[in-house]
Amino acid sequence: ESADDRLRGLTSRWIAEQAAAQGVTQEVSDRARNFLVARVARADGASDVEELKVLGWIATGSDNDRDVLERILLPTLECTGGVIENEPGVADLIARCSLTHPSLAAKALRLLVDGDPWQSLPHVAGGALRRALEALTGGADTEARMVAEDVIHTLGARGFHDYRELLGRREDGGSDRLA
Fold first, then answer.
1. 124 CB contacts (<8 Å, ≥6 apart)?
2. How would you write the chain as a 3-class SS string?
3. How many whole angstroms separate alpha carbon 4 and alpha carbon 12?
4. Angle 87-98/102-114 helices, nearest 10 degrees?
5. Beta-carbon neighbour count of residue 47 at 10 Å?
6. What is the pLDDT along the chain (179 residues), one digit of tens a residue?
7. pTM score, two decimals?
8. How far is CA 38 from the centre of its chain?
9. Residue 169 CA to chain centroid, in angstroms?
10. Nearest in space to 1 (alpha carbons), one of 48, 56, 58
11. Quick one: which of 76, 98, 102 has its CA closest to 87?
12. How far is the CA of 167 from the CAs of 2, 87, 101, 130, 153, in angstroms?
């Protein structure tokens, strides 16, 4: 904690990469993930933002999606105002969680889109963004659907109109659109 921000950021990124790596033992992955959970819990607002931004690299892993989203990435996105490294990987994790954990996915997606300083997310992670929005707008979770529709409006206001056809969809085949 007393190391400079750059060194802490490099170390945290390496730990996040180890937690997501395919070639490490489950014990190493679990220890790295537990370290990151504890680190995020100890985050002290603005002074830790630069270090926390690198935790997006954990999203490239393929196990414990809910745990990673709920205990590491969502609190990180909240602390950093949605700014994070590895936006394509984070968007892909959100898309993977959209069907099974729509509320968590919708919250994370809202933060990720809001924190996109260059408005590049539809360019660098368009496929994952679309998969997440399709799942959330077509799902049964009303709150998650409303958040997703708000994200679509935000993207539209930024000039990304390709997502508008997803508005008003529901899993039960109904529509929220007025005739």
1. 87, 88
2. CCCCHHHHHHHHHHHHHHHHCCCCCHHHHHHHHHHHHHHHHCCCHHHHHHHHHHHHHHHHCCCCHHHHHHHHHHHHHHHHCCCCCCHHHHHHHHHHHHCCCHHHHHHHHHHHHHCCCCCCHHHHCHHHHHHHHHHHHHCCCHHHHHHHHHHHHHHHHCCCCCCHHHCCECCCCCECCCC
3. 12
4. 150
5. 9
6. 577 778 888 999 999 999 999 888 999 999 999 999 999 999 887 778 989 999 999 998 877 899 999 999 999 999 999 999 999 999 999 999 999 999 999 999 999 999 998 999 999 999 999 999 999 999 999 999 999 999 999 999 999 999 999 997 665 555 444 33
7. 0.89
8. 19
9. 22
10. 48
11. 76
12. 48, 24, 20, 12, 9
Q: Retrieve residue 156's tokens.
A: 């539209």
Number of other CB atoms surrounding residue 93 within 10 Å: 27
Range 25-36 burial, b when 16+ CB lie within 10 A, else e: eeeebeebbebb
Length of the chain: 179
What is the spatial distance between Cα 47 and Cα 11, in angstroms, rounded to a whole number? 16
Place of tokens 């607002």: 45
Amino acid at 68: V
